[in-house]
Each structure stands twice: as C-alpha cells, then as structure tokens.
Amino acid sequence: MPTLSLPERWKHWEVRSAYGLLLPTLLFFLVFQYYPILKSVAISFFEYGLLQRSNPFVGLGNYVQQFRDPLFLSALWNTLLFVAGCVVVGVILALVLSVMVERTGRWAKYYRTLYFIPVVTSLMATSMIWRWLYASNGLINFLMTLVGLEPQAWLLSESLALPSLMALTIWKNLGFDLILFAAALQGIPPEFYEASSLDGASPTQDFWYITLPQLRPIVVLVSITAVIRSFQVFTIVLAMTQGGPLNSTRTIVYHIYEQGIQYDEMGYASAAAVILLVLVGAVTYFQLRLDRD
Description:
Layout: H1 6-43, H2 61-66, H3 70-102, H4 108-116, H5 123-134, H6 139-146, H7 161-186, H8 190-198, H9 203-214, H10 216-231, H11 235-240, H12 252-262, H13 266-292
Helix pairs in contact: 1-13, 3-7, 3-10, 3-12, 4-7, 7-10, 10-13, 12-13
C-alpha cells in the first residue's frame, strides 16, 4: 500500500470526517425539523388533542373551518398588514441608514454596533420595556405632552395597537438588516463611483444607478428574511397585547398558540400552521421569481 504524504493524509482525513458527519447531521434535521413538520401536517386532518381519548379523522374539515372562523380571518388579515408594513418600512429604512452609515468613514463601525445592540437583546425584555413606553403614563406620552400633542392609548386603540407593534419590530430588527446591507455596500468596487464622479453624477444618481442595482441580490435576501420573520411574530403579541384590543393585534402564530396550547385543539391549530407554511412559501417563491425576472 503506497504511503501518503502528510498533506494527502490530512486531505483524506478531512474527506472521511465530512462523510462521517453527514449522516448524524441528516438524522438531526429529520428528527428535529422535518418530522415535526410532517407530524403537524398529518394531525391537521384529525380532531386531535393531547388530552382527548379519541382523535377522529376529519379530512379537510379543519382547513374549511379555519376560513369560516372569524378569529382566524382576523389573524390572517392582521398578519398580512403586519408583514407588509414591517417589510416595506424596515427594508427601506435599513437600506437608507446603511448608506448613510457607510459614508461616515471610520465612525461606521461604531454606528453599526449601536444599531445591532437591539438585535441581540432579549425580545421579551424589550417588549416589556416598550410596553412601559407605550403606557398612558409612559415616556412617549410624556414627550408628546411636552410639545403640546395629545397623549394616545397606544396599545388600547384598535387603530394604533398594530402599528405600535410594527414600530417595535422594525426597531428590533433594523440592525440585522443594516449589517447585511453594509457588508454588500463594502463589496461594491469604488471604481464605479470614481467613474460616475468624473461624469458629474450626483449622490442621488449614484444611489439609483450604481448602489441600488448592485444591491439587488441582498435586497431580495433581506426582504425574504424580513417576510419570514414577520410572519412568525408572536412574542411581542403575547407580552404586550395578547391579541387585543378586540383582536386587532391577533396574528396567525398567536392564533395557533391559543387554539393548540390553551384549548388543546392541536389538529385545528396544526391546520392553521400548515396554512401559514404554505403562505410563507408562496410569498418567498414569488419574491425569488421577481428577482429572476
């Protein structure tokens, strides 16, 4: 048997190690990710409950009932509004701020750090702080009275509660999106801007004809992650409004939690989860098709 050199032995060991880790990793994903999804799809066709003795088969009954349920329809509409607001405002704001931050030169790293701090902060703790800010005697209303504005019942108003949660979500995730945009901005060749400056282009023209086209792939990526993240909103709803007032902040994930955990309607809740999965997949597919076109 020929003797392998040290680099060849090292490469051979790396290949064997990669194949050795492949099977455990695949099993891990099958057990902890794909099996729960398939199990959820399966029990969505049953009147399933953890405390029920029998779980009769109901076919598509749970799905039909979802679209007859005013609570689910309200949750669906609120979720779509939440996703639209958070994605559009959040992505645009992160893009504009990232461009402004990168123009600060050596101060950019400090600004990026400051914007990223909320991302790594506990969402539950952040929600409780913002709940105090939104309170009738909270900081926001106090500042409004100082400038002569009327205080608002932010979390008790049907028209203001959902936008208030949107503002928290946008603020919380702004740093993550900004970091992605900043990394993409640093990858744009400076020669493009040098050539445009020689042609007398303005900063606005640089943004529309150089920066934005170069950032198109990362804009799609940030939009997709923002869509998925917004569809999964739950913690802030649970901590701040519990779906109120009058179901104006009720979302699909909160609906799933209430039906499955509180009422033990696991089959009914699983049907809502499958609908959410299909909805997220469809929106993501549509975004990818737009990028290809």
